[in-house]
């Protein structure tokens, strides 16, 4: 019997029980569609987190103030005589700016305040006091107006650059540049609006207001410790070396060791690497969960094919009696099982691609290209594997026993 005839017999066998074949195909469809869609959800979530972290700047390094233990040994006056207070200071930022490989070091103080304009207010806005170099370090770009200048920092002028969300919340579609906004009841002049950086699970990066460090300290936070210092490396290749330089400079200035340091240093690239690893594990886990449904669909194929073989026992006996070999019978039932899985697989790919066009739990799925041939190939393998046992059972029947079956 030719392959074409085998294919025709298989189609005829499946057509004889259309509803049963459709329900079996549905199991494979759900499995393949789930694999593609859930892997796409995991990949989309991963890319969203990576984009949010990358927006911090690939060459930026953040120094955070922490609560370190007591500095040094009291008997070692030589090591502590030059030690400055453990709080992060503007002088620390100036020392870091002079280190090798550092393009800039921006001191930062931050607070959460209510901004208002006329009868409109925006609560919980992140207000940052810093230097103009901060914008480049954080990869911020201007959409309207301009950044404030170092001269405005030196004079402690009450000017502010708004994030896109804060500007929209307070001014709507009106251009806010040149207008006044109240920050905790204190008037500031808007000199610029930042381009949108979007939002993710990390929260909105656009509900912010950035002003000169001296102004924020004088009017809002006081001249205490800095919250952090943002260091910009001259190139991405120098980030690791600059991290070492930052640690070394601050250890020396604060009289600390790595065991009792009162600061922590991390870069966007380090966070991105950790997030990528976590997201990959999450994506694999989602794919594994979806693969279970595909496995269940394969078991469904075995069940249906066993029923089919039992129902068609007499047909098998007749075909063997007129000369059909075990190989022909085996090929027919394997073809039927494989057709069920292939049709289900192709429909599952279509369902997965269509499903990825919509947001799932707030995440825009991004299809992983290899997931489509992988899921489709796996569905074919399932058809061959789970259809093998019923096909072997059919091929192994003795013609006499099959003909006597009622």
Q: Which of globular, elongated, flat, extended, rod-shaped describes the shape?
A: elongated
Number of structurally distinct domains: 2
* Strand composition percent: 15-25%
**Helix content, binned percent:** 40-55%
Sheet with the most strands: spatial strand order: 2-3-10-5-7-6
Give me the Rg, rounded: 34 Å
- Encode the helix/strand succession as letters: HHEHHEEHEHEHEEEEEHEHEHHHHH
List the total number of helices. Answer: 14
Mean pLDDT: 80
Gap between N and C termini: 27 Å
Uncertain regions: pLDDT < 50 for 5+ in a row? 69-85
The main β sheet shows up as: 6 strands, mixed, barrel
Number of strands: 12
Report the structural category.
alpha+beta
Plain-language structure description:
The model is unreliable at 69-85 (pLDDT under 50). The chain is elongated, with a radius of gyration of 34 Å. It has 14 helices and twelve strands. The chain folds into two domains: 3-52 and 274-404, no CATH class; 67-261, no CATH class. Helix 2 packs antiparallel against helix 13 (371-395), helix 10 (268-311) packs antiparallel against helix 12 (326-355) and helix 10 runs parallel beside helix 13 (371-395). With 406 residues, it is an alpha+beta fold. Strands 2-3-10-5-7-6 form a six-stranded mixed β-barrel. A two-stranded antiparallel sheet has the order 8-9.
